[in-house]
Design goal:
By secondary structure, this protein is α/β, with parallel strands linked by helices. The chain is built from 20 helices and 14 strands. Pathway: Protein modification; lipoprotein biosynthesis (N-acyl transfer). It comes from Posidoniimonas corsicana.
């Protein structure tokens, strides 16, 4: 009987075996190689160390060489046949399954979406290997691989509304000095640098790489790291003595999320938030502070806020048919402000009513996920409606034309889309400050927050503080909380604007304009944070010019791919492979 043939793994050529390192030759299958990189990348992500019981371990260091196995695979001369590419995809799928396990937690149906979303995202590691294999025919691997990786991250952040949580750059959330280049390039620049250094390791580990290539790789890696650290240190020193901004009280409840409507829970939630607000006031007094603003997380103000044609109206001025929707909201506003003598930013459900003869009540209703600002006199000054909604969480794609789709989900209907960013002024003893609220996963997408800051800046209303309100109770304290905090850190650096986060069940935080976490709450417990927000007067290049770097990487990838089409002999190796 002839020996069994491994049809999944392409047999390496003699030249391939000679040129690859011993470690790479031990990883005989594309799946094993991809899986090694996936495990390293997962270990380096925020929250993983705590998850596996090693909260003290600096696993973020693994981010510097996490994609080296993927680069090894891209450098192999041996062709990858169909099943070999399937293995590449499976290895990338493993990373996203590990990173996004918490998608299973919100609802019995969400485990269906977990492997599907992970499967889609696994296309990007597959594309990285495939495009890099082609691009290194035209450029050294430490040029080609970073261009491809950063360019693909930009695509991932935009395609299908975008999703960029668990990115390579986020492994450095615990290293503020590395994060600082984000004010030039966005977080894409950090991913570029990490891929570059990881790519430089491959020639260094090749047994027969000539001295010239090894020297070039080592020099490139060292120069890049030194430049990044030098720039980071300079920018951190600039932010060493920040001016004090408004004093905020972040009110973190521990209300577990549920899809089942229960009117009695609304009063329980309101009572808990009010109790914690009083606790924050007491703690502030003990340290000689008085909050200018109390911030409640997303959806924690449970009295419905009703507007008429997007105009704020007191309950007693609403048409009779609408009063039942808004009973209690304005009374709550007055009571909160009168008791604390401060402004409130509240995560609420807003219902906008428009006269309609087609509705039995005479009004058509649109719901919004909203942040409302109530001043110290109890007046609702302004509101911000979430603009970047989460598919399948806040609306169902195509359901506008096929409403029956909502019957297949626990959602009764989709939420409306907000019109744009809002600068909210608050008055303090130190003057007026402008806040720019965003809600939940809007911080996950770099260009969403950047556009908000840029738009307001063009209007002469550059925000002093970014405010994220979120309800992460759906994830039961999982690593989603750590990943969500990390994206907030990067958004603060990218826009050189401090960010405060009020999160139901955590993680609530105060982050300065350098991405450093000054205060952070515990998870899955009630907590309050009272702190003065450190201001950052600097403006960032990224905030003004957007995704120039990532788009440049995407363009560079296209140029290399076109250059790689030039004829070459069959036995010519890829450049620097």
């Amino acid at each position: 009987m002839p020996p069994a043939v491994d049809t999944l793994t392409p047999a390496p050529s003699s030249d391939d075996a000679r040129r690859l390192s011993l470690g790479a030759r031990l990883l005989r299958s594309p799946f094993a190689t991809m899986l090694l990189g996936s495990l390293l990348l997962w270990l380096a992500q925020p929250g993983t160390a705590r998850l596996i019981g090693l909260p003290w371990a600096p696993l973020g260091l693994a981010g510097w060489f996490a994609v080296t196995p993927w680069v090894w695979l891209a450098m192999r001369d041996a062709p990858l046949r169909r099943m070999g590419w399937v293995q590449v995809w499976l290895g990338g799928w493993a990373y996203w399954l590990l990173t996004l396990y918490w998608i299973c937690l919100p609802h019995p149906l969400t485990p269906i979406g977990w492997p599907l979303l992970a499967g889609y995202l696994a296309v990007y590691p597959l594309a990285f290997v495939a495009l890099t294999r082609r691009a290194i025919r035209a450029a050294p691997v430490w040029v080609a691989a970073p261009l491809v990786y950063a360019g693909l991250e930009w695509v991932q952040a935009h395609l299908f509304t975008g999703f960029l949580m668990g990115a390579l750059s986020h492994t450095q959330a615990g290293s503020p000095i590395v994060m600082q280049i984000s004010d030039l390039t966005g977080a894409y620049g950090v991913s570029f640098v990490l891929t570059l250094t990881a790519s430089c390791l491959a020639p260094l580990l090749q047994r027969d790489a000539n001295r010239g290539r090894r020297f070039a790789a080592a020099t490139t890696a060292a120069a890049t790291v030194v430049a990044v650290l030098y720039y980071g240190q300079v920018r951190l020193l600039e932010a060493s003595n920040p001016a004090a901004g408004p004093v905020v009280g972040l009110i973190q409840g521990a209300t577990l999320a549920t899809w089942d409507p229960d009117p009695s829970r609304n009063q329980t939630i309101l009572d808990a938030q009010l109790r914690l607000t009083r606790q924050a006031a007491e703690e502030a007094a003990e340290i000689g502070l008085r909050p200018d603003l109390y911030i409640w997380p997303e959806s924690m103000f449970r009295a419905p806020v009703v507007t008429l044609g997007n105009q704020v109206k007191p309950t007693d001025q609403l048409p009779e048919a609408l009063r039942r929707f808004g009973i209690g909201a304005d009374q709550w506003f007055s009571g909160l402000s009168a008791e604390q003598g401060a402004a409130f930013l509240l995560g609420a459900d807003r219902f906008d009513m428009v006269a309609s003869e087609d509705e039995e009540s005479g009004f058509a209703q649109t719901g919004y996920n909203t942040a409302v600002l109530v001043d110290a006199d109890g007046q609702l000054l302004s509101f911000y409606d979430k603009t970047h909604r989460v598919p399948f969480g806040e609306y169902i794609p195509f359901a506008k034309n096929m409403p029956a789709l909502y019957f297949l989900t626990p959602m009764s209907g989709g939420l409306g889309e907000g019109e744009g960013p809002v600068a909210m002024p608050i008055q303090t003893a130190g003057g007026e400050f402008l806040l720019a609220p965003n809600i939940c996963y809007e911080t996950v997408i770099p260009h969403v927050i950047r556009r908000q800051v840029a738009t307001l800046s063009e209007q002469g209303q550059r925000p002093d503080v970014l405010v994220n309100i979120t309800n992460d109770a759906w994830f039961w304290g999982a690593t989603e909380l750590d990943l969500h905090l990390a994206v907030g850190q990067f958004r603060a650096v990218e826009n050189r604007t401090p960010m405060v986060i009020a999160a139901n069940t955590g993680l609530s935080a105060v982050i300065d304009g350098a991405g450093r976490v000054r205060r952070v709450s515990e998870r899955m417990v009630e907590d309050v944070i009272v702190d003065s927000v450190p201001l950052d007067p600097r403006e960032s290049f990224y905030s003004r010019h957007g995704d120039w770097f990532a788009l440049g990487c995407l363009l560079g990838t296209v140029v290399l791919l076109l250059a790689a089409l030039r004829p070459r002999s069959n036995d010519a190796p890829p450049a620097d492979a």
